[in-house]
Amino acid sequence: MPPVSDYERDVSTDQRRRLSFGSVAEQYDRHRPSYPTELVDAVLEYGNAQPGDRILDVGAGTGRATLLFAERGYELTAIEPDSEMAAVASKRAATAGLTIELLNTDFERAQLPAHGFQGLVSGTAWHWINPATRNTLAARVLRPGGVLAPFWNRPQWRDNPLREQLDRIYTSVEEEFAAAPGGVMTPFGSPPRVRNAADWLKSEFAGSVEFTDVDARVYEWQQRYTTAEFIALLGTHSDHITLPDAPRERLYSGIRAMIDGAGGSFELTYLTLLCLARRGAT
User: Fold this and answer.
1) Best CA proximity match to 74, nearest among 40, 51, 45, 97
2) I need a surface site. Which of 18, 149, 157, 199 has the fewest CB within 10 A?
């Protein structure tokens, strides 16, 4: 049975991993992939958002998703608990000539206006929020008719020609991972629990009276990585950041040799999962 992934268990209390990204904030900003333009369009359309409306970004990181919405003319409030990640987001916004409100805190502790936002987005971060309270908190800050829209980038290893080699390399350090293996960059990582609207409804909103019109959409795209680029990307994931130095170097050495042996680069297919729910009128 494959290991349980971060999307199928509560990782919100794992503070070591949750706040590990600040140590590689600049690297994270350079190497983490962005999100499809079509996703931004879908969120805004679904939420009936108009330029000037307020949007909340939970777990903003270095501002990748934040700026995608801010550059469309929306008023962005970004929540990021890691001060070093928040500093990069602030610098990126200033460089782009965009004004955002940046709160260096946890979503669970943030002082936010009730029904103050037309949209709540969360790019590859919603699983870090306490699953027992996140939807209640979202319902409190969203206007009636507003959209809750978490989304995740997920690499697809199943049909990748390097999958078998990569699997062997990760298996060699499996027992030394700081957390149970199952992160998105490992070939044996489980797929996300939510695959369609029915799964999204069942896993998050069973019996909910606060959200309606649940939907889920998937966007497929590709990105090519050189050896150095892929190693740098791996170094931005919490399960790799917290891996002890010796097994991490063995892991990276094996992956370098594998990609170099394949010509020095490879193409990776991503699926971006967008989950949507509309705040009810009551």
Assistant:
1) 51
2) 199
